[in-house]
Design a protein that fits this description.
The complex is a heterotetramer, with two copies of chain A (113 residues) and two copies of chain B (148 residues). Chain A has 113 residues and is of the alpha/beta class. Chain A contains four helices and six strands. In chain A, strands 1, 2, 3, 4, 5 and 6 form a six-stranded mixed β-sheet that branches. In chain A, helix 1 links the parallel strand 2 and strand 3. In chain A, helix 1 packs parallel to helix 2. The longest helix of chain A has 17 residues. By secondary structure, chain B is α+β, with helices and mostly antiparallel strands. Chain B contains three helices and five strands; from the N terminus they run E-H-H-E-E-H-E-E. Chain B has a five-stranded antiparallel β-sheet, with helices on one face. Chain B starts with a strand and ends in a 13-residue tail after the last strand. The chains are: A alpha/beta (113), B alpha+beta (148). Chains in contact: A-B, A-C, B-C, B-D, C-D. At the A-B interface, helix 2 and helix 3 of A face helix 1, helix 2 and helix 3 of B. Strand 1 of chain B pairs antiparallel with strand 1 of chain C, so a sheet runs across the interface. The structure holds adenosine-5'-diphosphate (ADP) (2 copies). One adenosine-5'-diphosphate binds next to helix 2 and helix 3 of chain B.
Chain lengths: 113, 148, 148, 113
């Protein structure tokens, strides 16, 4: 009975905010991948991924976000990450992806910047 | 097996990763690593196991994996990972160019930039044996902001 | 071994307890136990291992211990502990009268009041095998304020 | 290189406050036992054990405290525990020792009650 990935959502004027929670590793990233595909395919102008409730992410989670970023670009959607916890920020730094993603410090900033 | 050492055996089911990480984290703490370095060790071990699951076993969930945690002579951690999956030429396990942004291909880079010594060996019959060592005295490798 | 299951092997050195507890805690979480019940499970498993170390091995630090964590059919946790130490008559493993305040003698009480099913068995040659089960649906046993 | 048990101490007018930190299990309780013997043998009128920094305790830790309590009684010393975290409080409850020990909610209360 493995716990599935919890994702809270909020519609905003120009798109969506997703707030996954838990640890995004090989066990959880397939669910995130499917969900992000659906969200990008709905063609929002902006997709904010609030990572404040994600305490851990490995490279399978990062790969999922890179895929979503590339899909977003093709779809003309602006994908913004926000509120990365230090451990999660560190895997983006190690992977040299911290300058590839648009990363905001707060949800408000990510919604409105 | 020295006295302060642990061996974990589990199948290649990703659901097992979280419990294994918790054990690795606590073991690294007991050996004396601070929180930042424990975070790196846990991540790198997760990447190595994820590789066994995905590449060694082609994402089959029933392949046996063994992880051994031991204290290095002189302080630090020595981690051995064994699977019975598909083998890979250790010479091909070099990190890719990170400036080419694409999904995947980060695991080897993370493992190599975390541990001071990394060794991949093809086992006698089938499967890989990975040995990862980090002395307590070594500093985290430099992480330049951009690939050269 | 079912797919979501872990086996830990270690020697009877008390320094190993903390890493084992971290693993048990996370495994119990992945099976669905809340924090309070995880706390009890972790404590009770610690007590069982502590008994293997102290009584099974007479506090020797080099005795092999195996701990298996598995999910119960229908939800919950099944824990198997094996040592190769001194054996004890399972019939003697009853909790003592707690109103007699003295150091020690609490482990069996803690184990029995945490798990729904506890079984101690003498293994074939040497050592004990302990099986502890807690279904997800069972409630923590009642803890009256005073012994009867 | 196992980390040893850290114990902060404070002298008070009528005795001592000890503040161990970490997880008191079979690996750490022998150190605590030795230390508590020394402290009781110094014959303070009051010995406060502040458990606020103890996140975990098993029955070997509890046995150590029961021994110290019995030694204290013989020595005419008042042993007071304080600031138990919920997990630690729970093992005292399971062991039916929560009414055997004098347990204070704050260090100040334990020092002056
Ligand atoms: N344990 C392993 N068994 C077999 N092949 C492996 C193993 N670890 C790594 N590899 C090979 O090394 C490559 C690079 O691994 P990695 O950097 O982790 O990226 P990714 O797993 O995303 O491809 C993999 O694509 C795979 O071919
Ligand atoms: N794994 C074991 N091997 C041998 N004897 C055991 C084992 N577990 C418990 N015992 C016996 O049961 C008794 C009661 O155990 P317990 O309630 O944990 O209290 P304590 O360990 O403080 O004596 C022990 O004193 C010991 O004689």
């Amino acid at each position: 009975m493995p716990p599935s990935l919890q994702i809270q959502t909020e519609s905003i004027a120009n798109g969506m905010v997703l707030r996954p929670s838990g640890e995004i590793d090989l066990a959880r990233s397939p669910e995130l991948r499917l969900r992000l595909r659906e969200e990008v395919d709905a063609l929002p102008r902006r997709l904010v991924i609030d990572l404040s409730a994600v305490g851990y992410m490995d490279s399978s989670g990062v790969a999922t976000l890179v895929e979503a970023l590339q899909r977003s670009k093709t779809a003309g959607c602006r994908l913004i990450l926000c509120c990365l916890q230090p451990k999660v920020r560190s895997i983006f730094a190690i992977s040299r992806l911290d300058t590839v993603f648009e990363i905001a410090l707060s949800v408000d900033d990510a919604k409105t910047r | 097996m020295t006295e302060s050492a642990l061996e974990l055996r589990f199948l290649s089911h990703a659901e097992n990763l979280a419990s294994v990480r918790a054990c690795v984290d606590r073991f690294a703490a007991s050996v004396g690593f601070d929180e930042e370095r424990r975070g790196r060790i846990v991540l790198a071990v997760d990447e190595a196991i994820t590789n066994s699951i995905r590449h060694g076993y082609g994402s089959r969930t029933d392949g046996p994996i063994t992880l051994r945690l031991a204290e290095l002579d002189g302080g630090g951690v020595r981690i051995e990972l064994e699977d019975e999956g598909k083998q890979v030429d250790p010479g091909n396990l070099t990190p890719r160019d990170l400036s080419d942004v694409r999904p995947g291909g980060l695991g080897i880079h993370i493992i190599r930039s975390t541990f001071q010594n990394c060794r991949w060996v093809r086992k006698q019959d089938t499967g890989m044996a990975v040995t990862l060592e980090l002395p307590l005295t070594s500093s985290l490798k430099d992480l330049p902001r951009r690939a050269p």
